[in-house]
Amino acid sequence: MNTFWQSSFWGNTVLDWAIALGIIVVCATSARIIQKYALKRMQRFADRTESGLDDFLVRLVQKSVMPIAYALAVYGGIRHLQLPGRFSRVLDVAILVLVVFYAVTVISGAFSYFFMQYASRGEHAGQQEKQAKGILLLIKIVLWIVGLIFLVDNLGYDITTIVTGLGIGGIAIALAAQTILGDLFSYLVIFFDKPFETGDFIVVGDKSGVVENVGIKTTRLRTLSGEQLVVANTDLTNSRVQNFKRMEKRRVVFSLGVIYETGAKRMRKIPQMLEAIISGRDGVQFDRAHFAGFGDFSLNFEVVFYILSGDYTQYMDCQQDIYFDILEKFEEEGLEFAYPTQKLFMAATPANEKTA
Fold first, then answer.
1. Among candidates 207, 211, 215, which has minimal Cα distance to 195?
2. What region, left, alpha or beta, does residue 241 occupy, with left being phi > 0 and alpha being psi -120 to 50 degrees?
3. I want to staple 286 with a disulfide (CB 3.0 to 4.6 A). Which of 44, 103, 258, 279 is the partner?
4. In this model, does residue 356 exceed pLDDT 60?
5. Sign of torsion, CA 197 314 287 281?
6. b/e 160-195 (16+ beta carbons within 10 angstroms → b)
7. pLDDT at 42 (0 to 100)
8. Under 8 Å CB-to-CB from 127, ≥6 apart: which residues?
9. Domains of the chain with CATH codes
10. What is the pTM (predicted TM-score) of this model?
11. What are residue 209's DSSP bridge partners?
12. Local structure of 9: helix, strand or coil
């Protein structure tokens, strides 16, 4: 019996072949048990939860980790044998390529999941997800380049020349396309910092409009007059941007004047009248109403209130209704608004001066 186990077959004893086969069977069976029972239980648990993270982790293990586990099981068994140098080298290269491939796949998948989760938040999730796909493409390219360099380095090649060449090439490309790269980095700033989103009404310098699309190089606005305005992302990040869509309330200040003949007693009632008119409206917060000073032809009042909305149409509607109410109230009370007038006073000439 011992003679059988010690007999040689392709450079290895039957015992070595049996041990190698046992390693493969045990490791592969263990991986299969984990896949069939543990992963299925994890999947059932993930189906009962509202979070998508556990579903993602189960899919990631199923599609990327388990293939590596089976490959390592086979590799571990074969490496127990005495193999020819060339075959051993090919086997090492194959397992290294496989591990690097699935490792980059796992990292890339994790980046994609968390990045898309971040992009799916907010009011304009669909538009942000489209923008995120462009960034993800760049991230995946970088990850695969890093993985390729790692693979080449572990294969025993000197990567110093490659890294140096990439560095010099990167500098040359950066110098030649610095404007494009500047817009690209500005796009990343806009995506993560979110100074504005699609649908926001913004003002940049003397230009204004509704954001229609945020691209990798440019952002497109639809102006109030109807034309499309294309602005470089770098110009937006280097400018002061007013975002009216995020205005929570709008401060309104206006003045009105009454004639000097109004009288002090009636003048004292005007601030209370204005406060009653403004405070009685929904969505409006009264601040103050004061007799502000003596004008050339009027007694002036200053009124301040807030409209609790950033919507411009609602602001104009509310302000219009308040002005109408003030007109009606002043008509009821017999109060007259002042307008630019001049009064000329002429002194009578004494009689003795006339006869002289």
1. 211
2. beta
3. 279
4. no
5. negative
6. eeeeeeeeeeeeeeeeeeeeeebbbebbeebbeeee
7. 73
8. 197, 198, 213, 214
9. 2-176 (no CATH), 194-246 (2.30.30.60), 250-333 (3.30.70.100)
10. 0.52
11. 202
12. strand
